[in-house]
Amino acid sequence: MSAERIELNGGKPDPAALAWLAQVNYGHFTTLQVQQRGARGFRLHLQRLADATRELFGSELDLERVRAHVRNILTDQPATVRITVFSRQLDRKRLESPVEVDILVATGAPATPASAPLRLRICVHERVLARVKHVGTFDLWYLRRQARLAGFDDALFCTREGEVSEGSTWNIGFWDGIGVTWPSAPALAGVTRQVLAAGLAEAGIESASAPVRLDELDRFRSAFIVNTGSVGPLVACIDERGFGLDAELPQRLRSAYLSQRLEPI
Known about the structure:
The chain is α+β, with helices and mostly antiparallel strands. The protein has helices at residues 15-24, 42-57, 63-73, 138-149, 191-202, 249-258; strands spanning 5-8, 28-34, 38-39, 79-86, 102-108, 118-124, 154-158, 164-167, 171-175, 180-183, 207-210, 222-227, 230-238, 241-242, 263-264. The longest helix has 16 residues, at 42-57. The mean pLDDT is 95.
């Protein structure tokens, strides 16, 4: 098991800095699974951080600095690593001004993928700035809580027009027996989803983005979720619409994901 550690800008975090992040709650992050000091899709994680820093803070992120901070906190044990970018220089009266950023890196135990099929509750909702993995998660936890209170496992978002987009903290894929369809409605393009898509392509399995309407779900045999290095579990139902639990699909997806190399950090 990897010990929980946290560093700010490569050193011990100042409590005041952590309080600033908690109180202002403006920033973005990425989470990855590290093995052998590498991670699948690491360049995609870095690109996500660079793009979001430019959009939220108007500045360029030093990616070598990010690498150095992550290397500094790693051990040889597998770990979950979260990289959060925020800025104590942010002036709420001059939000248009570019600012330098702070980099918070935290490690914890590697993720344990869930295996039990999920029951999902449809919710008409779109995250603010859906393409960015930002720290504003109040709506995600609240809607997941409401789904669980209603007897489901989690919430699946859709647009007002009835198109599926994404889950509370994950992407969803649909399997028709031949290939995978990723919903094209506004959503975060998860790194695990992108890595899996590359692995599927190399295995000769079609993977494409297209509209997925709630009234057309019958054209799919199965559905599954992906998030932070976890491929699966399968989806048992979306509201009252049940899906087949294809016994071979999880292993096929997992094999495609694992076929992609670990990128050195």
